[in-house]
Amino acid sequence: MKIRPKKSLGQNFLSDKNIIKSIVEIGNIKNNSTVLEIGPGTGNLTKFILKKKPKNFFVIEKDHNLAKVLHEKFNNKINIINKDILSFELKDISKEKIIVYGNLPYNISTEILIKWITDNKKFESCKKLILMFQKEVAERILAKTNSKNYGRLSIISNWRMDIKKEFNISPNCFFPKPKIDSTLLTFEPKNKYFYIDKPYNLEKITKVFFNQRRKMIKNPLKQIFKKPDKILKKLKLDLNLRPQNLSPLNYFEITKEYENLTN
After folding, report:
1. Is the CATH number of domain 7-189 3.40.50.150?
2. Cis check: omega of the bond before 199, within 30 degrees of 0
3. Which residues of the chain form CATH 1.10.8.100?
4. What CATH number should be reported for the domain whose range is 199-262?
């Protein structure tokens, strides 16, 4: 079956063998590992993961035609799940920690990442995430306080993940060739992180602040709290700061105060 990449699904297949080998090595796959590959496409990365002989290997592919191609290529060597990763529950795969590879469609890459971090079941199931992003998105994930790229994505991503930039990937390494550079990032769950009862509250708080990123923080604080001055004093925040000047810890503490009042 001849496969044409679908623009609607954001399909760009990784074809450079040296890059593929480098990506596989980062996972440090052992013979007792459980691996999940999101969006395997035509199986270029899949083939090299198989050579590492993981104990369990699952691939999740939304495209029905590609799922058939993968079945023809690999038969029973891999477990093919023909579903959308955004609606799929990981508990259906394994009770063991999972190494996740993803050449994600760029139009849903941040949505997938945020889900993985804020969904407790998904977060607890993962050993390591090895994910590819549009370079600009990767820069937003890695951004530090006071930088122009700093925002919701940086804060939520760094809440309970240690993140490392591995390398950039040229458009020439894909078919069809995208118009942008890509970046490979790895995410490993932190052993200790700031406890937030309901992760979606962090999403809510950061959304209120960064919807008004040019305004001083008293504006979003007024939206969230009936007595914003009390919160400012308790957390020792400067009224004249803007959202990009607050550290991730500041946002975690604001979220905690919000939870204390709403619980």
Report:
1. yes
2. no
3. 199-262
4. 1.10.8.100
| Single-letter code of the amino acid located at 169 | I
Question: What is the average pLDDT score of the chain?
Answer: 90
Using the structure block, give the residue that is written with the tokens 């078919």: 175
Number of H helices, E strands in the chain: 11, 9
Tokens matching residue 191: 């052993």
pLDDT of residue 92: 67
One-letter amino acid for residue 168 of the chain: N
Q: What's the rounded Cα separation, in Å, for the pair 100 and 37?
A: 6
Is residue 60 a contact partner of residue 200, using CB atoms and an 8 Å limit?
no
Q: How far is CA 106 from CA 40, 102, 111, 131, 234, in A?
A: 14, 11, 10, 11, 40
Quick: pLDDT tens for 32-56.
Answer: 999 999 989 889 999 999 999 999 9
- Of 162, 236, 163, nearest in space to 193 by CA: 162
Residue 91, number of CB atoms within 10 A of its CB:
11
Q: Residue 194: pLDDT above 60?
A: yes
Mean pLDDT within 186-195? 96
CA angle 248, 250, 251 (to 5 degrees): 65
**Which residue type does 76 have?**
N
Structure token digits, residue 238: 């400067």
DSSP sequence for 7-34: GGGT--EE--HHHHHHHHHHT---TT-E
pLDDT, residue 52, reads 97
Residues of the chain with CATH 3.40.50.150: 7-189
Q: pLDDT, tens digit, for every residue of 18-33?
A: 999 999 999 999 999 9
For residue 126, the cross-strand partners are 98
In angstroms, the CA 130 to CA 33 distance is: 14
Residue with tokens 């690999």: 74
